[in-house]
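Work Package 4 report. The design task specified in the project plan requires that, given a folded chain encoded as structure tokens, an amino acid be chosen for each position. We show below one input record used in the internal validation round.
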């Protein structure tokens, strides 16, 4: 039986997240596609790819304030723009994977996923299941989707990852970002920041305390939030958070379970 692995390509890896207009990072996209084609050779795994948005959607979501609905004509136009830009990013990633001979199939969440007050309501995972059965690689992404209470809301790639990993019983989840894993403080601001190799139920409290005491100015929300999200939404699934910027990392994570921070709860 092939092992199902869900991989998130973070928006900071596949795009230049600092830019206000869509700016892909083709070097990283192609490097990830190449690595995925290498680990696919042995035919031992099935993959679901979920990618982030980076500069293809975050600036628009902010400009048109799309996280809690679209009531004005301007917001509706912004939503349409965001959907189109995300399709373009998805196309770049799918094409790169196909260039490495992988049967990648893009699935646009705004066309089949709905939310209710910003929470996932309906995602037909059977579409994903059928593709996996046919040895194809579904490629989904964080997107602006319709929301039955607000009109629209933002569906993050992380939510898709957790939902599919649980529904389809993934053996592992890998989050690729632009840092080496989860640190005890922000490594971009603090050169003394230490990488935490392992987080589980036993050391969780200590880790969270350490993160707080190392960050007196409250930059901790993001890291804490990520850990708690994983604890709540990915119970029982081994998770690895590591850098997607280094060649060979994907292989190490998939095959050996090495690199970055490993998390497992329950
Ligand atoms: C964001 O998805 C989706 C939109 C803003 C439309 P993610 O949260 O998964 O994206 P990144 O990884 O932060 O860019």
């Amino acid at each position: 039986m092939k092992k199902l692995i869900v991989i998130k390509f973070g928006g900071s890896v596949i795009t230049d997240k600092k830019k206000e207009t869509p700016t892909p990072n083709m070097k990283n996209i192609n490097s990830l596609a190449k690595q995925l084609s290498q680990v696919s050779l042995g035919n031992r795994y099935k993959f679901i790819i979920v990618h982030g948005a980076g500069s293809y959607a975050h600036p628009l979501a902010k400009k048109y304030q799309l996280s809690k609905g679209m009531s004005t004509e301007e917001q509706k136009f912004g939503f349409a723009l965001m959907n189109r830009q995300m399709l373009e990013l998805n196309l770049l990633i799918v094409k790169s994977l196909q260039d490495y001979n992988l049967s990648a199939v893009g699935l646009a969440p705004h066309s089949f996923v709905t939310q209710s007050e910003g929470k996932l309501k309906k995602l037909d995972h059977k579409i994903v299941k059928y593709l996996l059965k046919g040895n194809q690689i579904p490629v989904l992404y964080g997107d602006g989707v319709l929301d039955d209470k607000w009109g629209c809301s933002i569906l993050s790639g992380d939510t898709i990852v957790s939902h599919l990993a649980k529904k389809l019983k993934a053996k592992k989840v890998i989050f690729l970002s632009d840092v080496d894993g989860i640190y005890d403080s922000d490594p971009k601001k603090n050169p003394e920041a230490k990488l935490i190799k392992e987080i589980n139920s036993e050391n969780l409290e200590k880790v969270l305390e350490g993160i707080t005491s190392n960050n007196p100015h409250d930059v901790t929300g993001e890291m804490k939030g990520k850990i708690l999200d994983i604890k709540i939404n990915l119970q029982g699934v081994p998770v690895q958070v590591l850098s997607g910027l280094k060649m060979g990392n994907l292989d190490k994570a998939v095959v050996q379970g090495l690199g970055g921070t490993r998390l497992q709860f329950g």
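Residues 10-11, 52-54, 57-58, 61, 82, 142-144, 154, 156-158 surround IPE (CB under 6 Å). Validation will be extended to a larger panel in the next phase.
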